[in-house]
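Worked problem 6 (solution included).
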Amino acid sequence: MQIIDVKRVTKGSKHHAFTDLCDFNGVLYCSFRVAKNHVSDDGHINVVTLSESAEVVNTHRIIMPDTDLRDPKLSVSPKGELVLLAYARRTSKTSFLGELGNQHPLIWVSQDGLSWSCPKNIGEKHWWLWRLRWHDGKAYGIAYNRSKNAVHLYSGDPKRSFHRHSSNMFCLQKHNKGYPNESDICFTENDIAHIILRRDSDTYSAQLGSSKPPYINWQWRDLGFYIGGPNMLQLNNDSALLAGRIIHKGKLVTALLNVNFKSAKVSLLNILPSAGDNSYPAMVRKENTLFVSYYSSHQDQQAHIYLAKLKLPQ
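Solution. The predicted structure is:
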C-alpha cells in the first residue's frame, strides 16, 4: 500500500486529536477534539469539511460550557443523516447542564452537514460509547466502563430508542483479561459481526470478537499485540483494513494493517508519519484511493491532525 501524500490539516498551538472521517454526500467530513492538551477539561469538537488535498473548506465548532467533549465519531444513518457521537465529561458541579453531559455519550444530527441538532443523551451514564456502526437499518455500538472492566453492546435508533443489546460481552470476570475499552465493529455481507477490542491491562493484547445474528454469543480470539484507537474498513467477508496505534520497534506509531477474520492473523501494511502522542485514525475509501485522518505530534512536538492519501492495490 503506497503513500501518495500526507498533509497537515490543523494550525496553531492547541492540542488537536482523536479524529474520525466519513464520506457524506461525496464530501470528506473530519471530526476531532481541540483543547489545551490530551487530558485537559476544555475540549470542544471541530467538524470540518476537507478537500481531497486536505484543505479545510468549512469548520463547525461544538462547544458545551463546563464540559469536556471527547472522541467525536461520525456516521451516516440509513436515512442519509450525518450523526456525530461524543463522550461528554462534565467538569463543573455548578454547570447548568444538569444531567445532560454528566459523563454521558451524546449525539448530534445534521441533515446537510452544516447545521446541527441539539445534543441528545444515548446509552448509559458512565459507559463510554465508542462508535456507531450501521447494519440493516440499526445502529450498533460498544461501550466500556473502566471500573467495571467490561464492555456492553448497544443497538437501536440513536434518535429514539438505543438500549443495551448484550451485557458483559467481554469482561475481566468471564475472560480473565482486564480493561477492555476502545473498539470498532463491522458487519460482513453474510451478517457476521467482527469486533476489534483494545485492552490496557495484563498482556495488553487486543481481541478479535465474532458473532452471528442476533449478536448475543461472541467468540473471542487473542490477537497477541497491542492496538489503540482501532478503526476498521471492511474489504470482503474474510478481511478488513485495520488502523490504529501499535508498538513498532519500541515506539508508538500509527499503522495500517490487514486483519483476516478466519485466521485471526494481522499483517503490517504501512506506517504513517507519526510519533509521540499519536493515533485515533479513521479511513474512507474512494475507488482505489484510501484517505486516512489521524493525529500525531511528530512535527514540533505539537499534536495536529493529518490527512494521508494512499493508493490501494488493484
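Discussion: The domain at 2-311 is CATH 2.120.10.10 (Neuraminidase).
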